[in-house]
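Before relying on records like the one below, remember that each one covers exactly one chain. Contacts with other chains, cofactors or solvent are not represented anywhere in the record.
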Amino acid sequence: MSAPVSDTVIVMVLNDPPGISHPADIVYKFNTTGNQITWFMTDVSMTNATYVIMRDGIVCSMGNWNLTDPVRISVDGLNPAIYNYTIVVNDGLGGISWDTVSVRVINISAPPIREGSCAFGSLSMCIGAGLATVSMIGLLRKKKSHKKTRLV
């Protein structure tokens, strides 16, 4: 009779983190619509894969993701400022990845430039006229003081 033989095998399963797209940063004009961030994820092994999206560190969306449907979030309706949207994805097996997209909302409706009461109609003409006036006053004073020295 033979003695039973045994062996120990240690198996280490490595799980690569999910791949995630890196959308470009966004700049859009205040009060426009249709602005969104779209992320695509890839992974060879996943179960119950989840995501969390944060705007400036505060959770604003969460759910499950899969390989066929990208994760989208609208960034419409924001006030003029710069925001950071970060997505953290988990493949359900311990693999975690993240990406951040900067969103800048600009206000293009600046108040109109008022040219003041200058009769010439443009700022550069007002400055030129002002400099000419100052020069003329300087010349007149110089002439006046020159005449006084001759009279003495």
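The chain has two domains: 19-106, 112-152.
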